[in-house]
Design brief:
Layout (H helix, E strand, L loop, with lengths): L1 H23 L32 E8 L3 H14 L3 E8 L1 H9 L6 E3 L3 H9 L8 E6 L1 E5 L20 E4 L4 H13 L7 E3 L2 H9 L5 E5 H7 L4 E3 L9 E7 L7 H10 L1 H9 L6
Parallel strand pairs: 1-2, 1-3, 6-7, 6-8
Antiparallel strand pairs: 3-10, 4-10, 5-8, 5-9
Length: 278
């Protein structure tokens, strides 16, 4: 009997030691999870990805359609300089982008093709910082190759039988078109009003219109796919492009991207595409 009591005493001591050891380890289960199964911050997930500051992250940029070429290039530059960051873009008419933000679409950075639209975003409390102007742009006339309707000036677009496409008035390029018309005393009767400058360019390139009003940068990017007709009246409607961090931006990447666009590297890329400095 004394031997049996000693055996039970040893087992009780071992059990207590096991409980004390578990308590000292914080009660976590293997794999870095607490008893409820939730991952502990900073630990590796089952897939091996870090859940702390070293985790891969995405930067979402909403940008005017006319910025597609330049921002795509700057996004690739940013990714190379910031390993682990993926930059995703949504290119559309500026007014459409602001409407998407108002409806709750997630974005870290907003870049519009005019200050009026950015002011609307600020009034709706969609911004997390003051906008910064980074480029300017003006309109020009484009026609299909060889200019079959022999367009030489803005007034030619008002001739009977000339099918003209422009941006819709709420879009920055559409507002600029209206200012050009008023300045020149010319009233256009477009067959179509598009929601972005790239849509206008697309219709001209496809031969669905005799002419269109687009930004000089888009005309340059189109190369030989269109003919470009000078538009001196465009000096009356210069669009200034602002960029800002949104109110819902997460982390420092949003501001770092804004700094890239407004800094020397961004200015050089924009200048190569034909943008002017504000």
């Amino acid at each position: 009997m004394p031997t049996a009591r000693r055996t039970r005493g040893i087992r009780t001591a071992l059990g207590a030691a096991t409980l004390l050891l578990a308590s000292a380890c914080g009660g976590t289960s293997p794999g870095g999870a607490d008893p409820s199964g939730s991952a502990v911050p900073g630990s590796s997930s089952p897939g091996g990805a870090e859940t702390g500051s070293g985790a891969a992250r995405t930067l979402t940029v909403f940008a005017a359609a006319s910025l597609r070429q330049t921002f795509t290039r700057l996004g690739a530059d940013y990714e190379r300089a910031h390993p682990g960051v993926t930059v995703t873009f949504s290119f559309a008419g500026s007014s459409d982008l602001v409407a998407q933000l108002e409806q709750g679409a997630p974005a870290d950075v907003l870049a519009t093709a005019d200050e009026r639209t950015m002011t609307k975003a600020r009034g709706a409390r969609l911004l997390g910082a003051e906008p910064r102007a980074f480029a300017t742009n003006t309109l020009t006339i484009v026609t299909p190759p060889d200019n079959p309707r022999r367009i030489t000036r803005l007034a030619d677009l008002a001739r009977d039988g000339v099918a003209v496409v422009v941006c819709a008035p709420p879009v920055p390029c559409g507002a600029a078109t209206e200012r050009v018309e008023r300045s020149a005393g010319v009233t256009l009767k477009p067959v179509s009003e598009e929601q972005s400058v790239t849509d206008v360019l697309g219709k001209v390139r496809a031969g669905q219109a005799d002419a269109g009003l687009v930004y000089t940068t888009d005309a340059r990017a189109a190369g030989s796919a269109v003919d470009v007709i000078p538009l001196p009246e465009a000096s009356a409607a210069v669009n200034t492009y602002p960029i800002a961090v949104t109110a819902t931006a997460g982390g420092a990447d949003a501001q770092a991207f804004v700094d890239l666009v407004t800094g020397p590297q961004g200015r050089a890329v924009l200048a190569q595409a034909g943008f002017q400095q504000p």
